[in-house]
Amino acid sequence: MRIGEIAAMVGVSTRAVRHYHHQGLLPEPQRRANGYRHYGLRDAIVLARIRRLTELGLSLDEVRDALADDGGRDLREILVDLDRELAEQEQRIRDRRARLGKLIERAERGELDADSTVSPGTAELLAALNTTEPTSPMGVLEQELFALMDTTGGEQRDQVLAAVLPFVEDPETVARGHELQRRLDELADATPDDPRITPLAEELADNIPAEVSALIGADDAGHSFSTALFDSMGPAQAEVLRRTIRLLAQRPRVEGDVR
Predict the structure, then answer these.
(1) pLDDT tens, residue by residue, 157-212
(2) DSSP characters for 112-164?
């Protein structure tokens, strides 16, 4: 058989056959005097095995290991690993579909917005922060930052959520947070020497959980993200946050703190 004939018999492309030659999975037969490769029954059997294994989801490296083991021991281990990976993928798909279902329900109620696709933990936090009273500009920024953290925060995101969620479940704590946001809003057009800055920074620091302050260092105020954040608000508001960061960095650490 020539390459096109064996490829058609097994149901693969001639390009795939050449690739298997290149990868060392299918020995390349000798060329005849006319320059064409000639494939026999044994080549078709091996090629069929390769097709079956790749259709199960094995990588070419795994196929190579499986074909090299006549006893099938490596193949069994590969199949068990593949089955476990597929089970994990199925669970991830079920979880994603469950989230999609909830989002579709929210969309049908007209409650969907640009940040509705955050993780369940962040969604719970945003729902607690977004109470019925009008949201201030600083409150909107806070929610946008939590949504941003959901994507960029990594492990620290989970630590922040674990620390903050118990506090936002308390209506008094949420109300106090809104009051602090309102006072920050009032500084939108103020200068960096405004006398309201220092007391507000102290109150903000006092209202941030120790578990969150443990994630903050003195050099965080100079981080590129912090600089971008400060640039997005008024000079006095930025100064409040700089001083708050410094105060939090100076807070005594207790056993179990992250830093």
Answers:
(1) 888 888 888 888 888 888 888 899 999 999 999 999 999 999 999 999 998 878 77
(2) --TTTTS-HHHHHHHHHHS-SSPPPHHHHHHHHHHHHHHHH-THHHHHHHHHH
Count CB atoms within 10 A of the CB of residue 42.
10
Name the strand (E) or helix (H) holding 81. Answer: helix 73-108
CA distance 213 to 133: 28
* Second-level CATH architecture of 3-68: Orthogonal Bundle (1.10)
CA distance 160 to 192: 29
Instruction: State the DSSP code for 69.
Output: -
User: And the tokens for 87?
Assistant: 């089970």
For 10, 75, 240, the CA distances from 68, given in Å and listed in that order, are: 21, 9, 67
How far the first Cα of the chain sits from its last, in Å, is: 69
**How many residues in total does the chain contain?**
259
Lowest mean pLDDT among 23-37, 100-114, 193-207, 211-225: 211-225
Integer CA distances (angstroms), 66 to 29, 33, 55, in order: 21, 34, 14
Distance CA 39, CA 6 (A): 7
User: Would you kindly state where each structural domain of the chain is located, as residue ranges?
Assistant: 3-68, 69-112, 117-250
